[in-house]
Amino acid sequence: MIAKIVTLVLYAILIMAVGYIGSRKTKSFKDFLLGGGTVGPWMSALSYGTAYFSAVLFIGFAGKIGWVFGLSGLWIAVGNTLVGIMLVWLLIGKKVRVYATTNGVSTMPEFLEHRFDSKFLKLFSSLSIFIFFIPYTAAVFMGLSYLFTTTFGIQYEYILLFMGIFTGFYMLMGGYKSMALMDFIFGIIMTIGVAVIMWFVLDRSGGVMAVVDKLRAIDPDLASPVGKPGFWPLASLVFLTSVAPLAMPQLVQKFYAIKDDRSVKIGMVVSTVFGLLVTATAYFSGATGRLFVTPQTNPNAFADGKPVYDALMPEMLSNIIPPAFFLVILLLILAASMSTLASLVLISGATIAKDLYAGFLKKDASDKAQVFMIRAASAFFIVLSMILALTRPAVIVTILAISWGAIASVFLGPFMWGLFWKGTTRTGAIAGSVVGLAVCISLFVWRGEAFVAQAGSLGMLTSLAVVPVVSMMTGKPDKAAA
User: Fold this and answer.
1) How large is the average pLDDT for residues 98-118?
2) Which of 87, 119, 181, 252 is the most exposed place for a label (fewest CB within 10 A)?
3) Can you give the three-state secondary structure of 282-334, one letter per residue?
4) CA-based end-to-end distance of the chain
């Protein structure tokens, strides 16, 4: 326990030091939001990867997917790596950077406004970011707090407060400069952490083939290429988590800040390798949960004989990781959480300061006023997310999937078609965004939690389909794509 406390104290000191360094390099709004547009490949790559994969992956998501789908959950790792990272960098990395540099765009709502000359689209997308990023951030807070409660025995509320204060500290001081530097450090910690997890999972289980045999003995579907609950639920999860990054504001922002095309090429390779290590470890170890967690040995992971999905991975990791190495795992989860939290907070703060305040309320706002506003908005956003996390509204995976699917449904169609097709019209973009979100939310309300991944996926597909159809019906495009 002493070692854990000392580690957390040193971690807090590191965060404060990075916040201070970042604050000295932050002189303008562009510095705060984009790091001055001069961030290199390694920092950009690891910032992308750590923002993509949070504590939700290791706590709620991998635990539930592994328990329900078994080894077929590894298809999600394949999709996340090849589509969610490599294809995203290859397809939009350079194009987004050039568009942002040429047109002075620094947020996704600004892109939509500039591309389609639409104040409505800017307002609608800005409000969507703020509304749906709150539960997303709350889910990350919850995931980390559960792990630390299990490990330290510290009350959930205290861990939540600690997380909120220190995320806010280095973000509010240094903005993207601090975030990118911390993400680089976080990326190294996460790489070491997943190596430790994989080592002990394989060691305690007897190796890959032993895992396959043991899972097959429990239920043949757990070791099959596509087991229960079936192809479509699995395909929906792959699509939702892998295609959405093409238009997720907190991930696309990394390309606004990267310094040149060479950095995009290098960053793609680094980020892809990092993503493969993280996702393969998470979903494989999640699938082994049934081997290490039972109602007899881990009663806290079950309620009325059914698994408590958010507790499976914390219980499993505490079972198989020796105390001497568990500090590495704590740092892994902490790093994954704080990097994602910082990205979400920065984008949400920018939405209020840049897109809403300077975009609608005070168009002549000075650079200094915008910097103050983004800091204040970020702090406000953290407080709202912590309040929601205190209520523990639902299973972490459900909260994440709703938020992820809703945001992707708003942005995917207008952003991708607007970026690559000159024929996209303002009306088509608005229709794709509004109808996509409506389909996503309506399906979730109608079918409930069991249909959440499919609701998000169908909302995204609707957004992609509606934009070109309505564009072709509404005549000439409003503005050619850059």
Assistant:
1) 88
2) 119
3) HHHHHHCHHHHCCCCCCHHHEECCEECHHHHHHHHHHHHCCHHHHHHHHHHHH
4) 56
CB 211 within 8 A of CB 287: yes
Contact 470, 428 (CB under 8 A): yes
Q: Which of 334, 272, 343, 245 is nearest to 41 (CA)?
A: 272
Strands 302-303, 306-307: pairing is antiparallel
**Which pLDDT tens digit goes with each residue over 239-287?**
989 999 999 998 998 888 888 888 999 999 999 999 999 999 999 999 9
Q: Residue 117 — left, alpha, or beta (φ > 0 → left; ψ -120 to 50 → alpha)? A: left
Q: Using DSSP, how many helices (H) and how many strands (E) does the chain show?
A: 22, 2
244-255 b/e (C-beta count within 10 Å ≥ 16 → b)? bbbbbbbbbbbb
How far apart CA 86 and CA 221 sit, in angstroms, is: 30
DSSP assignment string, 38-74? -B-HHHHHHHHHHHHS-HHIIIIIHHHHHHHHGGGGH
**416: number of Cβ within 10 Å:** 20
What's phi and psi for 302, nearest 5 deg?
-140, 150
Q: How many Å apart are CA 336 and CA 142, to the nearest integer?
A: 13
Residue 478 DSSP SS3 = coil
Q: How confident is the model at residue 434 (pLDDT cuts 50, 70, 90)?
A: very high
Reported pTM: 0.86
Beta strands in 87-155 (DSSP E): none
Packing angle between helix 2-24 and helix 323-350, nearest 10 degrees?
30
pLDDT, mean of residues 318-338 = 77
CA dihedral 405, 408, 413, 415 (to 10 degrees): 180
Taking the C-alpha atoms of residue 185 and residue 191, their distance in angstroms, rounded to an integer, is: 10
State residue 333's pLDDT score. Answer: 75
Does the structural domain 2-390 have CATH classification 1.20.1730.10?
Answer: yes
Residue extents of the structural domains in the chain: 2-390
The 3 state secondary structure assigned to 151-169 is HHCCCHHHHHHHHHHHHHH
DSSP 258: B
Residue ranges with strand state E in 105-249: none
So what's the pLDDT on residue 479? 53
- Residue 229 is classified by DSSP as T
